[in-house]
Design a protein that fits this description.
TIM Barrel; 17% strand
Length: 255
């Protein structure tokens, strides 16, 4: 499927901004890994924020290291999603948003990844999402991994709060491979298949994914993140997908 000039943006990137040695020829040789990544890929997903806070000046430095059209998707801390399990998280949200907000106009979607053990509790989910929306008006995506989040009630709540449900590969539960929730954007997280975090994607799989993203982009912005970083396949898969959707960066000659 060829690129369509009228489509919405398709942002393809990886989790983090490490550049594997075997992929280095596709990137400029000068600058930090983030600066080099941002000259080739249109986005990255910050996963380190899930594990630990970063100083506001760190976020500001990251923003200043990237061109104006680059975007960061940012994962909400596990202290909120896994430890507090979405309850009573107002203070933690305030701290996190005060830090990540220093990205300014480089800030893309917030990613709320939920633990597999966290089922859908309507009161808790509504309270959390309402509190998040009071504090943040930008894009939000949610990656639930419990079957309870794939009900009509959960779907309706996500739509109400303008939260898109992630399409995940491999799917942890039935329905998780397809996007859902608010349809104002689509967000894919490609974790590697058949071996999660390790497998590269076969060319046929990337062909099918490219067709799907191009079709979705006729109606809404689309994001796709490769998280199969353990054996260093994410960068090459992202570059291959960009080529298939017609957004391949200009090649950088090997040094």
């Amino acid at each position: 499927m060829s690129a369509d000039r009228t489509r919405h943006p398709i942002r393809v990137g990886v989790a983090g901004w490490g550049i594997p040695k075997l992929s280095a020829h596709a990137f400029p040789v000068d600058g930090s890994h983030l600066e080099r990544t941002a000259r080739v890929l249109p986005m990255t997903e910050v996963n380190s924020s899930f594990y630990r806070p970063h100083k506001p000046e760190t976020w500001a430095r990251w923003a200043a290291s990237t061109p104006p059209d680059f975007r960061f998707a940012v994962k909400i801390p596990k202290a909120i999603t896994h430890e507090a399990r979405l309850a009573g998280a107002g203070d933690a949200l305030d701290r996190f948003l005060g830090e990540a907000g220093r990205l300014g106009d480089r800030l893309g979607p917030l990613l709320v990844q939920l633990p597999p053990s966290l089922g859908f509790d309507p009161a808790v989910a509504d309270g959390f999402l309402a509190g998040l929306r009071v504090r943040f008006d930008g894009d939000v995506v949610c990656e639930p991994r419990h079957a309870g989040w794939f009900s009509a009630e959960a779907e309706g709540l996500l739509v109400t709060h303008r939260v898109a449900r992630v399409a995940a590969d491999p799917a942890p539960v039935e329905g998780a491979a397809e996007p859902g929730g608010w349809d104002g954007l689509r967000y894919w997280r490609m974790h590697g298949s058949p071996v999660m975090y390790r497998s590269a994607y076969e060319p046929a799989a990337l062909d099918g994914l490219a067709d799907r993203l191009l079709a979705e982009s006729l109606e809404r912005p689309v994001w796709c993140v490769f998280d199969n970083t353990a054996d260093f396949h994410a960068v090459d898969d992202a570059l291959a997908l960009l080529g298939r959707i017609g957004d391949a960066p200009a090649p950088v000659p090997p040094p």
